[in-house]
Amino acid sequence: MSKSPVTCHVLDSSIGKPAAGVPVQLQQLRSTDGPASTFDILAEGVTDYDGRCMQLYPEAAPGQKREDLIKLQAGRLYKVVFKTKDYFESTGRKCFYPWVEITFEVANPAEHYHIPLLISPYSYTTYRGS
User: Fold this and answer.
1) What are φ and ψ of residue 41, in 5° steps?
2) Which of 73, 82, 124, 130 has its CA 20 to 30 A from that of 51?
């Protein structure tokens, strides 16, 4: 199975280790009408022992390939949501940011989009990975 068009890697910089067990959602912008933008959930996953979520696909029905279920579109906005509070609580720590949302625009749907996230209980940072 090939990796999904959007993948992520979460590292807990406060302890210098991968953040395993972080719930992750991939969302797509549906509407910017009104005072708030609306996103639809495309897929959900959880980071593995190495802090990676490489198979961020929706569940496939019988006879479907998961790879065919997500086709990124040029000019569309997507968002990856990391539920960091769940992770920190599972390690006995409190955090300031209960989740981290990273919104990005797809310029070229043929490219792979890798979203690394470095977290600690009171900060986070990200960049476009490869």
Assistant:
1) -75, 125
2) 73
